[in-house]
Amino acid sequence: MDTKILEKLNAERRARRAAIVVTDMGDGGARLIRQGDAVEGELGEAVAKALRTGKSGLVEIDGRTLFLNAHLPNPRLVVIGAVHISQALGPMAKIAGYPVEIIDPRTAFATPDRFPEIVLHAEWPEDVLKRQPLDAYTALAAVTHDPKVDDMPLKAALDAGCFYVGALGSRKTHAKRVERLLAMGVTAEQIESIHSPIGIDIGAASPAEIAVAVLAEVVRAYRSRGLEAKGAAA
Asked: What is the pTM of this model?
């Protein structure tokens, strides 16, 4: 790979941004396409698919054979709240391939004994997110029921364009949350992207069942990125 292209690709990787290296199999020429770059026609469609699926492969465009090498950040899950749902959700998400971090300033809840082998931050979310900003390849689930803990990371997730933003609570609770978020400067369009009540509707009752519903919704959101039909499968 050309040194300049490799340097640019590594910069995108460090910033947790997706990119595609397009190589012409005929002459060996290559170019880097960053997520968000304007690409028209059949190549644009092929690039969009590769960015959504993360799959590399050959495509035939205008009589040329191109190899699209997809480089996507690993999706991750940030959970706000060291609660019973999180205890079940953390291990399940790891099995599904989503590295998990749990943030909760309440030190009585955020203990290693309750969350073995899970990255745990017993700090306020704003402090953690200053060091480790959210991004488009992060899912955020807020499950504390405490506005002082949940609201700031919810706004941060919406502003960062996280592929999934979910919040625990009834419709009445969410209506009050919406009022607070609007007062914080969140737009009505951003509000629409919040999944609340959190999780797909499977009639979940126990914390473990709610965790299953949340993880399913996260996976569906990730796999349907870029599709026009909301909730459609990739």
From this structure: 0.86
More confident residue, 13 or 233: 13
Average pLDDT over residues 138-148: 96
Same domain, 15 and 104: no
Alpha helices in 31-146 (DSSP H): 41-53, 84-95, 125-131
How far is it, in rounded angstroms, from Cα 21 to Cα 23?
A: 6
CA–CA dist 132, 175 (Å, integer): 29
Domain of 43? 3-71
Q: 137 φ, ψ to 5°?
A: -105, 25
Average pLDDT over residues 148-159: 97
Q: What angle do CA 60, 65, 67 make, to 5 degrees?
A: 100
Identify residue 9 by its one-letter amino acid code. L
